[in-house]
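Per reviewer request, we include the raw input and output of the structure prediction for the construct analysed in the revised manuscript.
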Amino acid sequence: MPAFPFTLKHCARDIPAGAVVFLVAIPLCLGIALASGAPPISGLLAGIVGGVVVSLFSGSALSVSGPAAGLTVIVLGAISTVGFEKLMIATALAGVIQVVCGYLRLGKIGSYVPNAVIKGMLAAIGLILIMNQLPTAFGLDVDAALDLSAPAQWLSAMAPLAILIAGVSLAILWFWEQPASRVLGPLRRIPAPLLAVLVALALDHLGPMMGLGALSANQHVSLPGLEGPASFLSQIALPDPSALLDPAVLTTALTIALIASLETLLSIEAVDKIDPLARHSPPNQELKAQGVGNFVCGLIGALPITAVIVRSSANVQAGGRTRLASFIHGGLLLISAMFLAFALEWIPLACLAAILIHTGFKLAKPGMIASLYRAGWNRFIPFIVTVGTVVMTDLIKGVAAGVICGLFFLLKSSHRSTISFTKNGKQCVLKIHQGISFINRARMRQYLDLVPEGSHLVIDARNASFIDPDIQEDMDAFIAAAERRDITVELQSLDGVTATFSPQTLRLQHAA
């Protein structure tokens, strides 16, 4: 690793982009920690490691790492099964496994996922973001027992000031992307999310004066127990090495390593597709970087991390160009956790919800969905299956369902295009266009049944790089039976050799 691992060529873009990702990361780090049943500080620590540590070793220019929603169920189950202390050891061990996988060059698995599935994963995450953040944007208490069948109850629970803040924030984010925003001149250089936060702070202060009431404490960012560097350091937990003797820890480590690696590889594939500079992230290097990050997370009591598409997308949308932006976001998380927790608690959650909703909309853009629909069912159906399964279950199951669906269309296409059959009177040609396997057996038999008695059949296998033994058996059986039907078979093989089997030669062979 060079003495200074970052380039400053794009620092004018990377610094504000890092600040934007920092603002997006705060509610995600805390929310994922709470959803996982872990201490809130563990989520912040994971975000810090994802920015400060992983970016030092990563080869991806734009991906941002941190605690991932895709690991929430796994972490929650692990904490309930083995406890948080043993989860720390499992996370560190998962990091070691990821580093080994990187050196074994197992990072290519992400390149085998179809583009339609990756886009489906992005769209599903976008929809989940929008659905999860809408209650916060309306000022609703997600922990309150609201009866959705009684509209008057939840309508009365909405906070007008939160709705105003979210609406104004969304308007700023939308307007900043329109050509008309150029009239603002130098002001347009301020990243839209940063401006949205500043305006939200002002509206939060002016709300009571406008008769909109005041936001409650749980409608602002909450960082409990962080009152300075001493309190921050005191909350860092240390692992218990004796946990390595628990077989459940190894199982948990393997599960975390598998899911975190897959999510990372899929995320960097997705981020590369929206990289304005069209760069390619080295997957094996990314596995090693994530492994180092998870090893550190396990040592300090942080949640396991992956490359995360939400923060990475926010980085791209904010203009980030290199991994310096990710490092800055991690550094700001560290500084804020140690010194500025009180200031971060001024930020209304409705504003951050608007930033996430806007990010989600860009991930699930109607234009992208329409383009996939126009591309045909073989791309649109895997996309829809991925979206639906991710929304109803989780990311890994959704991607698996999308890949299986994509394989179905691939096999269907291969089934149709591998062989062709033409007949002109008594002259028939069966042409094999590529390697042929047992999945084409039914179509092969169907074509052979169309060969009439007394005809001349040419089996052109010059382009068949591979012929499955099952297919070969069917051809041999047809040739052996050709004598009874007075059929001459001319077989043209890949090596250029042509063999002719006429009824006369077949009779001589049988007589011999």
